[in-house]
Specification:
Blueprint: E1 2-5, E2 13-14, E3 21-25, E4 35-39, E5 46-49, E6 54-60, E7 64-69, E8 74-78, E9 84-87, E10 98-101, H1 102-109, E11 123-125, E12 128-129, E13 143-145, E14 152-154, E15 161-164, E16 174-176, E17 183-188, E18 197-199, E19 203-208, E20 222-223
Parallel strand pairs: 1-3, 2-4, 3-5, 4-8, 5-9, 13-15, 14-16, 15-17, 16-18, 17-19, 18-20
Antiparallel strand pairs: 6-7, 6-11, 6-12, 7-8, 9-10
């Protein structure tokens, strides 16, 4: 596998070799305000982001990605859906860290809810810092608002908030989170039954809005 460590001397457009390639983004080597476009649809290719790399913001479409780093550098990846993404690990030999597909990198590492469908507007993400062992913690996360209907909510790896302030909107829902430190706020005016499943939410706040009435909470399927 050919290795391209991005430095200030790297041409503004790079990629396209017929080999399997690894492109290394390291905080000590990417120059402030550097602008770079990577495109490589030949072979099996990896974008590696080493520990300590600070992403100030991201913009993601169905098949492309733009990362703005904390030093002002802007990295554009065309055909991003054909790459694997490695966070952390050794930038020299490529060992260690965590390797994900494009979709998983967008949701687990950048903290977006999903990759936009083809033709949809790009989604934007906030600041995240790459861990040496892989991942980032997923950033600020998303806010999900529950309705009166039974529904499934799949959270991000960021710090999500689930708003169940509509009375009894939590009943019958399935809420599953992928990481981060998450908060569920729900209002109850009737019993919460075992038809409700909550997994991976660290902070569950239940407001009982039922004066003079006993509200029972079946917590069998509520797992932090």
């Amino acid at each position: 596998m050919a290795v391209f460590t991005i430095t200030g001397d790297t041409p503004p457009e790079i990629g396209g070799a017929a080999t399997d390639d690894r492109y290394v983004l390291d905080a000590f080597n990417v120059e402030p305000n550097q602008e770079l476009t990577i495109t490589d649809t030949l072979g099996t290719n990896v974008i590696q982001l080493t520990g300590g790399l600070e992403i100030a913001s991201s913009s993601v479409s169905s098949n492309a990605m733009q990362l703005t780093l904390s030093n002002g550098a802007v990295i554009t990846i065309l055909g991003a859906d054909t790459f694997d993404f490695q966070t952390g690990g050794n930038g020299v030999n490529g060992t260690g860290g965590t390797t994900e597909t494009f979709d998983d990198f967008v949701t687990n590492t950048l903290g977006l809810a999903a990759v936009p469908a083809e033709g949809d507007a790009p989604e934007t993400g906030g600041a995240v810092t790459v861990d040496g062992g892989g991942g980032t913690g997923g950033g600020a996360g998303q806010t999900f608002t529950l309705t009166a209907d039974a529904e499934s909510v799949n959270g991000t790896s960021g710090d999500d908030t689930i708003d169940g302030s509509l009375a009894n909107s939590l009943e019958g829902d399935t809420i599953t989170d992928a990481g981060g430190t998450d908060t569920l706020n729900a209002t109850l005016s009737a019993d919460l039954t075992d038809a409700t499943t909550v997994v991976g939410i660290e902070n569950v706040n239940l407001d009982i809005d039922a004066i003079g009435t006993t509200v029972n909470v079946d917590a069998d399927n509520i797992v932090g």
